[in-house]
Amino acid sequence: MQLLSAQSQGFFWCVTIFLLLFSIVHAAKLARLGYRTLFKKLPPEPPKIPEKQTEPVYFLVERKKKRPKKEYSEPKEISFR
Questions:
Q1: Eight-class DSSP state of 29
Q2: pLDDT by residue (tens digit) across 15-33?
Q3: pTM of the complete model
Q4: CB 4 within 8 A of CB 12
Q5: 40 by DSSP, 3-state: which?
Q6: In this structure, are residues 10 and 2 in contact, taking their beta carbons and an 8 Å threshold?
Q7: Cα–Cα dist 30/45, whole Å
Q8: N-term to C-term CA, the chain
Q9: What are the angstrom distances between the C-alpha of 48 and each of 40, 45, 51, 78?
């Protein structure tokens, strides 16, 4: 007695083969990438420049001054022609 029908068995084997080949291809790509980086020389690090001590910055703040109150003169009469 068969547990799976022919279509189910075909689907199962297709998925199994796909996953197997998928993992093989990616393992080969990662192995190739790792092999390429084995013999690469890293660029030399530039010498570190010692940091300069920064001097403190002082801000001069001027106090707000009150505006002098303006004294208004008498209004001028305007005539339209």
A1: H
A2: 999 999 999 999 999 999 9
A3: 0.46
A4: yes
A5: coil
A6: no
A7: 27
A8: 115
A9: 23, 8, 9, 76
